Model the fold of this input.
Amino acid sequence: MTSFVAARRVLAQAKPLRWKRCFSQLAEQKSDVVVGAPELPPFDWSPPPYTGPTSDEILAKRKQYLSPSLFHFYKTPLHVVEGKKQYLFDEKGKRYLDAFGGIATVCCGHCHPDVVAAIVDQTKRLQHSTVLYLNPAIADFAEALASKLPGDLKVVFFTNSGTEANELAMMIARLYTGCHDIISLRNAYHGNASGTMGATAQSIWKFNVVQIGVHHAVNPDPYRGVFESDGEKYAKDVEDIINFGTSGNVAAFISEAIQGVGGIIELAPGYLPAVYNTIKKAGGLCIADEVQAGFARTGSHFWGFEAHGVVPDIVTMAKGIGNGIPLGAVLTTPEIAEVLTRRSYFNTFGGNPVCTAAGLAVLRVLEKEKLQQNAFVVGSYLKERLTELKDKHELIGDVRGKGLMLGVELVTDRQLKTPAKAETLQVMDQMKEVGVLVEKGGYYGNVFRITPPLCFTKEDADFLVDAMDLSLSRM
Done:
């Protein structure tokens, strides 16, 4: 407002030519402002002027040198140059509310000073050696991480990603049980390597390559599922798969507590306890994929599976574990972990000192800043406001999720639940222009995935909902 008052004073004293010049400059500065849009919460930091390559130059290099499989969001792709806490800045200095968190990865906030300091300090002293030598970073982080898990889940294997963690978990289960069959859920996403692609159950993520040994059970989806919220009825399908599709014994059952890529699908109540019991009777292990739902994101618990009252045999994690550093992990019991001693198992970068130093810093920040509690309080408030928005806009078919892992599904017909794919893209683009970044997911690409940094505030939540309200009103 101050800038406009100053501009008016200049205009009042200007000659006609200067008037035109001033108007031109103001129009250029405010050309990306959407009329009637809500205002971003105040923030006392802005990046220095950007002097790097333009968006067109970057796009040209991507097309020439990077895989053609890479794609970007938005009609006009976003050029991000800096991040701070829950905000991102483009090359023009425009600030955006990051409600996506780099695919549920940035949990402490962009460039958190404690995490950055841990990375820089470790990098200055020792960037890499090997786990064949002793180093305190990996041991300290393993101890801290194990303390967050229940029961006898105390042995850690570090990896570089969630895909790698799930690959290892599936191999461990097959080695331990002597069985090959694994049961996953339809609509699941567990990675895109050879084994995890088999466990993934959306055609868009599956190439036509050999994928064997995985059976996909009916998804316990309370919104689109045939049994609605009756978890035990869905669980019967896992029992049928074992009886009619296997030898009667299985290696493992793998699932997320809340499906992320699948569209923020919460598993129906009562499902996991029933399935875990069935898998145990068949001699199998239960794998909890916490790549997206872990690390305090759901608010009520540190891990997604805890809300279901179950204790898995193996837990996999990545994304939020390092706040953006390439890091993943598999945790299991000493007995199960023993199977990897039958041969030599090694990972050159798994347990890298810089990555594990970052991971330990993340855990400390989560505790020090009480980000799990914040995820619960702000997430509950945000979900309530989004639910109110559903009453206002027929295009919203469902609002779901927990903490700061929320989904908003758009449909053109609430009775038929017809996916509003085109409308989702339009609303997403309009929200970006207002200053909010969300991501679309789900099999039909019609679900807004809201997974911001856990330092999100109620003011941020209000801005997000108001931006979505405005964008939906224009449809």
Q: What stands out?
A: The first strand starts at residue 80 and ends at 84.
